[in-house]
Amino acid sequence: MCAAVALSCLSPPAQALQRASRPVTLDTPDTSEHRRPSVAVDARGDAIVVWQGPGGLQSTSRPAGQGWEAPEALLFSEEHPFVALDERGDAMSLAGGYISVRSSFRPAGGTWLSPESLPGLAEPGREPVAQGYGADLALEGQGGALAAWVDSPHPSAHAVAPQFVQVASRPAGGTWGSLTTLSEGQFGAAHAALDARGDALVWWVRGDGEGSVAESAFRPAGGTWQAATDLPAEWGSPGSLSIALDARGDAVAVWEHLAGPNHVVVSAFRPAGRRWETPQDISAPSSGATSPELVMNARGDAIAVWNSGYFTSSALQAAVRTPGKGWGRPRQLWSSNLAPVAPHAALDARGDAVVVWVGVDGLPSGSTVEAATRAAGGAWQKPYPVSARGQIALAPDLAMSARGDAIVVWELEQGRRGVIQAATVQLPPRKPERRRSRSRTRR
Predict the structure, then answer these.
(1) Whole-angstrom distance, CA of residue 203 vs CA of residue 192
(2) Which of the 8 DSSP states describes residue 249?
(3) I want to staple 339 with a disulfide (CB 3.0 to 4.6 A). Which of 186, 282, 297, 314 is the partner?
(4) How many other CB atoms sit within 10 Å of the CB of residue 148?
(5) Given a cut of 60, is residue 122 above it in pLDDT?
(6) Does residue 34 register a pLDDT over 70?
(7) CA-wise closest residue to 292 among 309, 281, 305, 308
(8) Who's near 239: CB < 8 A, 6+ residues apart?
(9) How is residue 380 annotated by DSSP?
């Protein structure tokens, strides 16, 4: 029997299907730096990537089954871009900078429209705010958008500047509405999620260290924001909190918790419209689990990935949650003397999964984007490289359509130049579904 997190439990890669495509460079050949790519894939498998270029944000798209198109400019230069696609293929990008949060819209098959500035926090007699810190974007299937970010007015010489969690909504085909302030204090980032009905959830961690408190705010579809509330006190001071919603509005949360001398990953479930249930540990009690990330599909399948280990022994682990059954035992996807960096996970509608991360090979050999895949109900396959070995690959992002089209993008260092590359990841063969035999009754 396999141990709970034994690497030997991973299945060998399938034949030709268990590979990634050859990397493709997306940006134009120049000597500039291109950074922080973000990728989205719609239900048909059409893909779009936005990244930070030398003169502002740039983008390229790829119709399903075709090649990548020439890059185009988005006409604004904010940093840390996000991109999302709705079911129709309409795209929304969001980026935050020093004095603004701006977005741009691209109708399916069209070009990017002029950018819009989101409403900002202005106070008479004060300098402009520094917006966009810790921004996030959520897009529901019909095109309604939700943006959340942290505003931080410029601090005076003698005081710590207060920060504000802000949200704004944009109906499909409309413009951004008025600003809503959800909380005031000191924050790391704000995070947003929408379910299929348009119900919205925003969460954040207020404070730092042992005194931190997790908070959230809810807005029913078509309604107004409810007052922010503390998440259950039994959650303690959650680190790396991640929450996801399925199509019904059921929520799953995972976070890092200090239990005695060890860090563990903890999870809680909240049925739509009800209270959070009792949390449970999903990592081994002495594994040193940190920095969890969570994804969930429309029907409620979920994947959590996290780093584990101490000092000279590090690993990447994952656990699968099935609706009605809860979390399975964690599985080890990767082991090294250097911790894996920037893990991301994605699920399709059936529960097929892809996880990518940066495996640090050590200097001067570089770092490589690695991937592991799992067919719904199957075993995790052994990881394999997506980017070329012997190079320096950074900052991967991952997206997958409901039918299983998975695309990975990343930065590649080439001397003083940074380029954006992409590859598709193919899933392992699915298990054939068993057909129920019909018994015949003799007459």
Answers:
(1) 7
(2) -
(3) 314
(4) 28
(5) no
(6) yes
(7) 305
(8) 205, 212, 255, 256, 257, 258, 290
(9) B
Q: 63 falls in which pLDDT band (50, 70, 90)?
A: very high
211 or 188: which leads in pLDDT: 188
Say if residues 372 and 383 touch (Cβ distance below 8 Å): yes
- Sorted by sequence, the CB contacts under 8 Å of residue 357 that are 6+ apart come out as 305, 316, 334, 340, 341, 342, 343, 344, 369, 370, 396
* CB-CB contact of 104 with 76 (8 Å): yes
User: What residue type is 442 in one-letter code?
Assistant: R
Alpha helices, H only, 51-93: none
pLDDT in tens, 348-393: 999 999 999 999 876 556 899 999 999 999 999 999 999 998 899 9
The one-letter amino acid at 94: L
User: In angstroms, what is the C-alpha Rg of the chain?
Assistant: 22
Cα–Cα distance measured from residue 366 to residue 8, given in angstroms and rounded to the nearest whole number: 26
Distance CA 280, CA 266 (A): 6
CB 153 within 8 A of CB 123: yes
CA distance 47 to 24: 14
287 versus 175: which is more confidently predicted?
175
Whole-number Å distance between alpha carbons of 92 and 105: 5
Token pair 């997958």 in the structure block, residue = 400
| Cα separation, 413 vs 118, whole angstroms | 33
Q: CB–CB of 254/235 below 8 Å?
A: no
The Cα–Cα gap between 276 and 251 comes to 9
Sorted by sequence, the CB contacts under 8 Å of residue 224 that are 6+ apart come out as none
CB atoms within 10 A of CB 88: 16
Amino acid at 42: D
Q: Distance (Å, rounded) from C-alpha 313 to C-alpha 260?
A: 20
Instruction: Give how far Cα 356 sits from Cα of 120, 252, 288, 360, Å.
Output: 35, 21, 20, 13
Residue 12 burial (CB count, 10 A): 9
Both structure tokens of 182: 């959800």
CA quadruple 116, 119, 124, 130: dihedral sign:
negative
Question: Which pair of structure tokens corresponds to residue 237?
Answer: 């001071």
Contact present, 166 and 135 (Cβ < 8 Å):
no
